[in-house]
Amino acid sequence: MASEEELFANIDALLEEEPQLPPPAERARLRGAAGITQARLAVALKTSTQSIKNWENGRSEPKSPRLEAYQRLLKGWAAKYPVGGTPAAPVAPVTPAAVSQPVTPETFTGPAVPEAKAAAPVEVPAAPAASERPARPAARPATSRRPAAKKATKPAVDPRFQHGPLAVLDGDGSAYGVDGIVLDCPATTIPELVEWTLRESGLGAPKLNRYGKDSDPLIVLTATAAVKLGLPERLEGHEQRRSLRLPEDHPVVKQVAKAKWQLTQRGFGPWARIYRKAQGRDRQCVQLAILSWDALDERSWPGVAEMEPADIARVLGMYAQRVITPRGSTAVSGLELMTALRPPTKPERDAESGNWVSAYNPGSLGIEPMDPAPPEATPEHPVVVQSGWTGGFLNEEAYQWVRSVDSLSDEECMLPFAVGLDLNTAFLAAAARLVVGLSAPDHFHAPKFNPKIPGSWLVDLSHIELDPRLPSPFTPDGSRPTGPAWYQTHTVAYAQELGYDVHPIEAYLRRETGAYLDPWHDRLKNAYVDTLADLGVTKDLDDRAFLAAMEQHKQVDPALAAVLAAIKATVKGGVGKLRERPQGRHYKEGERWPALQRPTWRPDIRAAVISKARVNMHRKLNNMAKMTGLFPLAVLSDCVVYPSPGASPLDFLPYAASGKPQPGGFRLGPTPGLAKLEGVQPMLWAVELMEKDLNPARHIKGGDAVLEDGE
């Protein structure tokens, strides 16, 4: 005979079980009796219509906290609409509190207890992401729950993509989307996941240009989800770690092929794209990102990979809404954004046949890759190797300059501080209204210089003598040119602006031009400014309040701070990818590498952005010297270090008597191209670095300054 302890233990086990729901058919009957549609119930429970269908046909079951809320709702309906009986006393309507707070598990056998007077059912408003997510182990660091600042207007939701652009899939089948929504994903294999994503999830994003394409849905896999779907938690082995790809004989790759799906040339890596040929206008493509395979680089997405799935969805969702649905690294996304905003083709009616055909979209780069002029290429490019070119190359790179210690005055050495100023997204500011070439380059001998024509000019600027306390605007290392060299149009135009005659020896120029990067600049600028504003750094702050806000903005909301970092990385990475170099140890000089097949492989456009940014920097340095008598200690890319009498930029930046910043020099503010405080160090420390031929800006800024050519 069982003891009392055993009986009580069994009863306690029953009490601890999850709330029991009526059979699926009864759930559907109760909802129908209440006159509530599946769509309306999905809104109330903040889930998808497909999830409601799955619950009512037995394919899946809700999870906490929806389980308790759904059970409470069905209990109330069961009391009001019994099978073949008289309705019991009315129960209270479903309220937001009922959804967000757990209730005591009960069965459906007992009579309902009336709670309030009858009232019309109300729809549950959207709750914050924090209250939607089930409780999880405290193994990962906590993240901020501060909601993003509300905007005056919210973009209309595309009915095809009612659940947003992406979801983060966890190992329990919960797919966390934007705005706190959680979908139930029953997939147990990669092909099933792709089918569910395209047919049931309601994920995706509308095109950014009328002639463009909709963004494919993105599914981000946590480590547990990856293992559940048959993927390794980490890629193992030397070859796999080097290439970051699954081998072709891996079971998952075979599953994909057997289901008649295809992988892109990148294979099954951290950012795998799985697709079939489009059917009419409907694309059949899903983008996967695998967190445990380092899909989210820590430099571009600081701390995101360690966040909870709901927080990851919030970060990536915000980026997708303000920039683009991620399609790879931030560099890849930056490049994809250019094409999404300037599609290469548009539909056009053929005059003879009357049919719609694909035609060139003016202002775009077209669909065919274009070889650069020899001086614009890289030494290993086929254009250079096959032609035997020896005439030199463009060297338009960001500043890496340290001032000579011998040029420091006693007064400068006596100043106590070295202060670093960083220009907000300087390369994005340089892309604004930037006219670039859209056609192939033409070769000219002894042309007359025209600052309005983009291209590459061979010209001798060695005769130009400038203040040695400033870097030369014509070379990345700030040294004076020693003879004829190739320069981009903006660099030569700046020599004219300084009052010097220029006489090009030859040039490669483009006849068709346009501001190709304008929409790219505008979208990224708005994303950057809006995200900073959500972090409390707004345009209406005075300089003192701006510095205080910038000092704290990363602690306000780590999720939004990660979005801001990703936006900045998108700018630098996108510009760098315009001249992606060959990758892989097996590459041989003179061979074409995959990046050359892209119309967006345009080293001349990259050179134009960097040239304009460097010229803008020198113009500010020159104006600062005229207005304040101060000269920089070092410049690294978009960061400049000045000697200062105090620990704040307010101690040396030029201000008018009215208190307003003087135009022409460095100014503080959140807009791209304006400056912010990057760091403060003792002046003696900076001089010691200069004596060792080290750049103080690199140490103040932490080394983040280079526009990489690859990912």
Offer a quick outline of the entry.
The chain has 23 helices and 20 strands.
SSE map:
Layout (H helix, E strand, L loop, with lengths): L3 H13 L7 H11 L3 H7 L4 H9 L8 H15 L15 H5 L28 H4 L33 E4 L4 E3 L5 E3 L5 H10 L18 E4 L1 H6 L9 H6 L7 H8 L3 E2 L7 E9 L2 E9 L18 H14 L7 H12 L3 E5 L6 E5 L21 H6 L12 E3 L7 H5 L2 E7 L2 H6 L4 E2 L4 E4 L9 E6 L23 E5 H9 L8 E4 L3 E2 L3 H17 L8 H14 L1 H20 L25 H26 L5 E3 L2 E6 L30 E8 H9 L4 H6 L10
Parallel strand pairs: 1-4, 4-7
Antiparallel strand pairs: 1-2, 2-3, 5-6, 6-7, 8-9, 10-18, 11-19, 11-20, 12-17, 13-16, 14-15, 14-16, 18-19
Helix pairs in contact: 3-4, 12-20, 13-20, 17-21, 18-20, 19-20
How would you sum up this structure, described in words?
The protein has 711 residues and is α+β, with helices and mostly antiparallel strands. The strands form five sheets. Strands 3-2-1-4-7-6-5 form a seven-stranded mixed sheet. A five-stranded antiparallel sheet has the order 10-18-19-11-20. Strands 13-16-14-15 form a four-stranded antiparallel sheet. Strand 2 and strand 3 form a beta hairpin. Helix 3 crosses helix 4. The longest helix has 26 residues. The protein is globular and about 100 Å long. The N and C termini lie far apart (71 Å).
